[in-house]
Records
---
Amino acid sequence: MERKAWSFALVSVAAILGFDGDTITEGRLVLGGVATLPWRAKEAESILGGEKFSEGLCREAAESALREARPLRDNQYKVPLAKALILQALTQIAGQRAE
């Protein structure tokens, strides 16, 4: 289907992880739909770098990425949505790596 003018992501996540064995050498995490411009979650990236991959680490990074979020009344739903998408993106990267 062709995209309509009103078709847009409520929240989007772009993530990349570099690995050396099981250790994350670097991570990049960018969120869309949560600010006026794509927003790089640098604090979350610093949490990921140098650590062994785990779901707990991904949850910590997701929490960190949204810790300073100040949603408006009508878009508060984006905070848990963004956290879930970050977790999904990071675990999907690790899962693809294992295949």
Note: The longest helix spans residues 78-98.
---
Amino acid sequence: MDELDLVPLPRNLANPDGSANFALEPAGDARLSQWMDTRLTLATWVKPDGVQLNSVETAVLRRLRPPLNLDEVGEP
């Protein structure tokens, strides 16, 4: 947030609470999009027969510990 100078804006001015109710100002949104384009990649994997995807997902999340996946990572 600080590195990209991101400024959150409430989506609902009548009730501006909760992180799901915020967006970024347009210039910050563009900076974040550029940051993601530069740093993020997408990969695919063909699931072998008999493999349960839920257990694979959980193992990957626990290993990579993505900060935005609170359900499986278990950190605030």
Note: The first strand starts at residue 8 and ends at 10.
---
Amino acid sequence: MPMLPEYGYLRVRQILGDPKRGILPLIPVSRSTWFRGVREKRYPAGVLLSTRVRVWSVSEIREIIESPGAGLVGGR
């Protein structure tokens, strides 16, 4: 598993992985599953930096990873 920075923000490709860029997933779900989970409040909403850029705090992602069975619903 890739190491997380102590603090800061992550973009969706850093959370879900991007094989074209060699980024391994932290949470192994598809993009559509992730955003459905955001809408259903299973995953945090993140912070909108601009109209097309949303980021999630490292602490929120760390909580998801450390919770039992996290991110394993509807994986890819």
Note: The radius of gyration is 12 Å.
